[in-house]
Amino acid sequence: MLPSLTMSETTRTRIAIIGGGITGLAAATWLELDHGIGDVVLIEASDRAGGKIRSRIDAGHTVEWGPQGFLDNAPDTLELATSIGLGEVLVPATDASADRFILRGGRLRAVPTSPVAFATSDLLPLSGRLRVFGEPFARRRPERDETVFDFARRRIGRQAAEILVDSMVTGVFAGDSTRLSLAATFPRMAAMESEHGSLTRALIAKMRAARKSGRASAGPSGPGGILHTFAEGMERLPRQLADRLGDRLRLTTPVSRLTRNGGNFLIETDTATIRADRVLLTLPAGGAGSLLAELAPDAVNPLRSTPTVPIAVLMASYDRTDAFGRPVDGFGFLVPKTEEAGILGTLFCHSIFPGQAPDRSLFLRTMLGGAREPDQAHLDDDALLSTVRAAHSRIFGRDPEPTRVWIARWSEGISQYTVGHLDRVDTAVRAARAAGIELAGSPYRGVSVNDCIRQARAAAQRLARTSH
Ligand SMILES: Cc1cc2nc3c(=O)[nH]c(=O)nc-3n(C[C@H](O)[C@H](O)[C@H](O)COP(=O)(O)OP(=O)(O)OC[C@H]3O[C@@H](n4cnc5c(N)ncnc54)[C@H](O)[C@@H]3O)c2cc1C
After folding, report:
1. What is the mean pLDDT of the chain?
2. Greatest extent of the chain over all pairs of C-alpha atoms, in Å
3. Which of 234, 247, 267, 397 has its CA 20 to 30 A from that of 172?
């Protein structure tokens, strides 16, 4: 008898990775590069690999849907990129992009890069600046997990917390500093306090160590690295990783169920059942929770308690550098909650990566939504554009017509690590691991591309050690 045409295909693999964002792609590649394991299948729901990383070249612009770049202070990302032949197409941000701004009182204020510059800057009122210098004498940390805002208010005062730190949280997480956990979102800051008793003392120690070793040290307000991208944009990285995987990458294959049969995992999709010895989930938290319902029910609630916030990205191009009647140079600006500007911030892409825009043009990328105003992310195109234009017009004093506009929306934009996040992650990871499943990616220990690639490498190592 002929086999039924509706019968689904069955594949066997040593390791199955579910989710083809940067974490899944990097994990599959680390398995090969670090451990020589190529018996891997990467299963992705959509018709392209890369998840949040998505770029398009249009009329001389490199349009980024998701991340604009990554900092070069994480060795894993650079190593991964160079190992797969992308070392030659790395593009660093310009020196001009070291100038960053924060909106306060409706005006853009430069973020100072040294304590001396901070003392005389107009970023905070004098009382706020003086309070920052009292940081070494602040109360010690409470035993429990604390919000980023509470930590900042305790150490550097309310004004700096509301303006400086809220902007930082907006820039990385599009999040609410009064809800996010310090230990989960800025673990280095938490460690600086517990190791040195004060951020100031920790920075001085770091600068001394850097001077001794002859290395440069980032200033106190610097991000501790230089932003990089690739020629043709960030998607170059996932595209190259996907090409290397070839037919081990299954696109347009949403996984609907994960179960076990004896020693094998059974991964069910519309068209195939994949049998695997080991499984790595690199999905957004909600999706990972659903797939773990049968095998690791204790992981479900902690994962469902990791919310994401929606984000809209509006990119606008202007064919004259004087479109706003003033120079628009530097990295861009962030907007603290106190400003109520309707936008989270704007990057000056033409100044950060000049190759991403035609000569003599301005190319601005504005974020909206996030935890602060989630509904903004769902505005229709016209409403988004008028919100951005109104905000820019108030800030720059002019409202020029953009030559071109691109809009991207992410309903599950960025994971939010609210207070207690690390405990919930521990519970979820323990429950999943007890069932033989690994978890990695932006819902867990860092949302940046660098964090995802680092987590992918650690997951690959555990899988290599425990699969045979
Ligand atoms: C607008 C924006 C700007 C950002 N800017 C920066 C930046 O400048 N620098 C930086 O470092 N980071 C930035 N980030 C963060 C960073 O891009 C992301 O955190 C990171 O790319 C997430 O990678 P991931 O692998 O964890 O998840 P994702 O990219 O979300 O990948 C998960 C994948 O799983 C797939 N999937 C879901 N369900 C299933 C299923 N059932 N079966 C199979 N597959 C499934 C999805 O289709 C997706 O491809 C930004 C994020 C956004 C949204």
Report:
1. 92
2. 86
3. 397
Domains and CATH numbers, the chain: 9-53+238-306+418-466 (3.50.50.60), 55-111+221-234+308-416 (3.90.660.20), 114-219 (1.10.3110.10)
Distance from chain centroid for Cα 452: 8
State the Cα angle at 457 between 453 and 459, rounded to 5°: 115
Cα(301)–Cα(226) distance, integer angstroms: 38
- pLDDT higher for 1 or 213? 213
pLDDT for the residue numbered 140: 76
Would you call 405 helix, strand, or coil by DSSP?
A: strand
Q: How far apart are CA 327 and CA 195, in angstroms?
A: 43
* pTM over cut 0.70: yes
Q: How many other C-beta atoms can be found within 10 angstroms of the C-beta atom of residue 191?
A: 12
Which pLDDT does position 212 carry in this prediction?
A: 73
Q: Is the pLDDT of residue 217 over 60?
A: no
Q: What is the dihedral of CA 289, 295, 298, 299, to 10 degrees?
A: -30
pLDDT of residue 213: 67
Residue indicated by tokens 């045979």: 468
H/E element holding 109? strand 107-110
Q: Which residue, by CA, sits nearest to atom 10 of ligand 1?
A: 448
Does residue 132 carry a pLDDT above 80? yes
Query: Among 48, 52, 348, 447, which is best to mutate for testing ligand 1, by the most ligand atoms less than 8 A from CB?
Result: 52
For residues 423-439, average pLDDT: 97
| Whether residue 143 has pLDDT greater than 80 | no
Which residues, 6+ apart, have CB-to-CB distance to 168 below 8 Å? 334
Residue type, 405: V
Considering only CA atoms, which residue is closest to atom 34 of ligand 1? 19
Alpha carbons within 13 A on the beta-carbon side of 408: 19
Q: In this predicted structure, what is the pLDDT of residue 121?
A: 92
The answer on pLDDT for 222 being more than 80 is: no
Distance 235 CA to ligand 1 centre (A): 12
Q: What is the pLDDT of residue 8?
A: 64
* Interior angle at CA 258, CA 256 and CA 260, nearest 5: 150
- pLDDT, residue 17, reads 98
CB of 311 within 8 A of CB of 174?
A: yes
Quick one: which H or E segment has residue 350?
Answer: helix 349-352
Query: 209 CA distance to ligand 1 centroid (A)?
Result: 35
- Amino acid 314 reads L
